[in-house]
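**Fold tokens**
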Amino acid sequence: MSATPTTKPRLFCFVLMPFGEAFSDVYKIGIKESCEAAGAYCERVDEQIFNERILDRIYNQIAKADLIIADMTDRNPNVFYEVGYAHALGKTTVLLTSKADDIPFDLKHFPHIVYGNSLSELRAQLTKRVKWVVDNPPVNGEPSLKEEVEVFVKDKNLILGSATYEWINYDPHVEVTLHNISSRIIDPGYLKIGFVITPLRGLTVNTEGVQTIKLPDGRDLHLLQDLPALLPDEYDKARISFIGYSDVDKLGEIKITLRLFTAKGARDFDIIMKPLC
């Protein structure tokens, strides 16, 4: 059965890169075909017809684009300037380079696709990045929370569903790993982490550094202290611990909810605490 046709416009990727024959295959095979494979549409400014100055056109297209793809190879000053403008607008940006040595100090904390001489490697990595943005498009020009943070329980990505965390009687706790998958720094206080738990007889949350709020449904929301700044592609851990229970065999499984808060909204993830007998 064929897919249902849609009139929804494709995500627009604007490409910033040096011009010249040396970059022809990188653009046509590595970048343009990756965007097509991911269900997006991409253009460079030299493919467009316009009347304004080229720099004005580039500014216009950066502002209009859903995603910026920039090849930083050879440290081209025009590309660097244009990427700085895209970052100033808060645009979701994917950076590429054929040589890791071309990444300057100020951009080393931004993830790059380093493709060397392999267009197949570029296509594999870029298609995956573009597909993610296609599936999680920016809202009103801003990346969604889903696009900014991944959450793991050990090796299980909670975006894919609930996970089980096994604990032992002398150290009941839950630990999650947060991954900044955006191209921007997540500042302290921007992301708040809470655990929503039904009060349990004989088992209480260790409230050191935790703010507890009683919710209308009878559950408790335990808010952790703010994390430090989380750089692009950086990981950090968050943990909540419990006290007051020694007989794990009688406790059984406990369902808790991890809740992430930002100014853009909240997301919930289900975690099952299970005693390791």
Summary: The longest strand covers residues 265-275. Residues 146-275 form a domain with the Immunoglobulin-like fold (CATH 2.60.40.10).
